[in-house]
Amino acid sequence: MKNSLGRVVPDTFTPFTTSDAFTSIPRKQIQEKSKNQPIKVFHSMEDLIDELQIKDGATLSFHHHLRSGDDVINRVCTSLHKRQIRNLTLAPSSIFPTYTGIELLIKAGFVKDIHTNYLSGGVSDLIHQGLLQGLLIMNTHGGRARLIESGDVSIDVAFLSTPAVDKQHNGCGTLGKNACGTLGYAQSDLRYAKQVVLVTDSLVDKIEQIDFDHHYVDYVLLLDSIGEAEGIVSGTTKLTKDPVGIKIAKDTTKLINALGLIKNGFSMQTGAGGISLAVAEFVKHEMIKQGVKGSFASGGIGKQYVQMLELGLFERLYDVQCFDLDAVSSYKQNRHHLAMSASQYGNPFEADPIVNQLDVVVLGATEIDLSFHTNVTTDSFGKVIGGSGGHSDTAYGAKVSIITTQLIKSRLPIIKKQVTTITTPGETVDVLVTERGIAINPLRKDLIELLQDSTLPITSIESLYELQHTYTGIPATLEQSSEVVGVVMYRDGSIVDTIRKKIS
Amino acid sequence: MRRSLLFIPGNNPAVLNNSDVFLADGVIFDLEDAVSVDEKDAARLLVAKYLAGIKKGKTELLVRINACDSTYLESDLAAIVMPSLDTIVVPKASVKELKKLDKLLQVLETIRGIKKPIGLLPIIESPQALLEVVPISKQNRVVGLLFGAEDYTASMEINRTKNGFEILYPRNVIAVACKAAFIDAIDTPFTDTLDVDALKVDAQLAKSLGFVGKACIHPSQVEVMNEVFSPTLQEVFQARRIIQAFEEAKTAKLGVFSLDGKMIDEPVVKRARTLLSKAKQAGVWREES
User: What is the residue-averaged pLDDT of chain A?
Assistant: First the structure.
């Protein structure tokens, strides 16, 4: 079966039709959990697992707020491996290369399906080789929240890394030696998992700023360490110093300005990538120059946006995850730095998710094609190297969605006739900015009209496509395996594309 | 226009490939100081391949060759002289070496069937060169002079400062020599790539002395140079008023007339026309705007 984008979809799934198809579907929500049992505290992972009686076929979830520094997922997986528990479904909100415990389970053949929003490293290699028993399902941040609240994925146990837990068994992200700030991705797990375990290495008397309410908690596991705080800061959250990246960022800022978006009350989000972050820096200068005060910035928050909040350039920040320790500290101290759950952020069924209030979002791309379909999920061999995260959610919601990318990366042309894997449908992508020109999606006639007298280097995506080949030549088309190892699930639960096994 | 001439090391393929994206008026591929001795061959080959393969656009393509008294000169010329090359940047220039270069280029251009003569942009970077700046400016093929303050101040045994007081004299001399020879005066690069404000002040000073552009050693400097060395909207507005007043005076058969209480004569009108022409080239003004 093919979806409206022409991509094959396994028969057991709903094919993607349009990005707003969800508007004609009623919201599906299971009951939030209610519990009567007192909270039990454990000091040993093995004792806890004994107590939980996890069985073959269980579904377990985790969050990734400690990013590369998280050790909870590895310790849980190691214990499950020792116990030979099979046919597992894992639902971590992201998977980083340091999450080697998952590799252990996959190699043993114990993992059926994996639901996640972002994936890189050894787990991806194993899935590409076809070692997963079931399928990899790549979600969006908002889509994962929808998936859990709808009960489409029913979580048996949520293991939630929690930097600090108090005597009442509330949890928070702002205290403890592994303070990581907001805990937005875990809110659905907390509310809808059948059993919730807060895993911590810091007990405190009282938490004022509660992120995990004890009413949802079944167990607390106190370990010597839940991870390494240094791993919270991600390499993808540093501003580019590359002159070409800087040029793209400057042109993007000029574009945002030319569209008249930089004005009092405006809102923005930039993805975690060197160019996107440089855009935020240049927009900051433009706001100061024009004396503009925006309403909010959102998404993953790093020190740049913290600085903008402190300079009074934005009224507030909506933060689903902190990218660095400056953001952690700001969330702790600044009452205008607000936590948001993944559902409030991008769940299509929320009444007015934050993504829908955005004026502009600046995102990256691994590949983009002539229909503006964007791939941030796989490389050109089809191996998963990332994932949507909030890409598809914000591209849909923001008034203007801008993709920034170098036209040529490592000698490879980035604009394809058809992307290897569709992550974000082209109908929700408005503009592409490269170092050699800006292309506007023909569907956005309003933007084209607004920019018709602009001195910006505006051209068509077809011209950029041809231009890149004058430098690189036309790459050979890669053959794809017929064996499906995963799917890319749109935020509404429909399938935009499939992920295939490596050709041996 | 030579508002911004961006130096690109000749031995870095990635940088070379992106050299035209920063919108510099000209790109100088460097075979000299930016390239270490063990990389000279690789750089020469790379630049030659780039020039041979490029689809020529508006950007002026220049190559800074190694010094004329070095052993690299003939290999450099043999590799890079081709139709796509616009101008050769000549380090440590002297009249004698420019004459030698002119002859070598005549031979190569004839053999290779190059119709448009390749220009020369000598670098004035020693007290000796400064003393013969007038004859240098009048040599065949010379399209402008580039001031090289780093080597000049080293030869003079004086320190470089941000305000540039110590190079005011050579700047004045070079600017005057260029105007007299109807060629372009290009100012020395500003070496602090992080201080954009000071770069702007330095460029404005050079402009006020008669320079038409400045060499850039980092892509981030290009935008500032293009802005500083382009006519401002205010200048464009005033130039249009002068020309309009001139046309009206001509209809009224007046030789000399005044605007805002100031006398306007032929040289003022000529300057206004030149400015509008530059503004058009720089994209600051369009006829209908």
Answer: 95
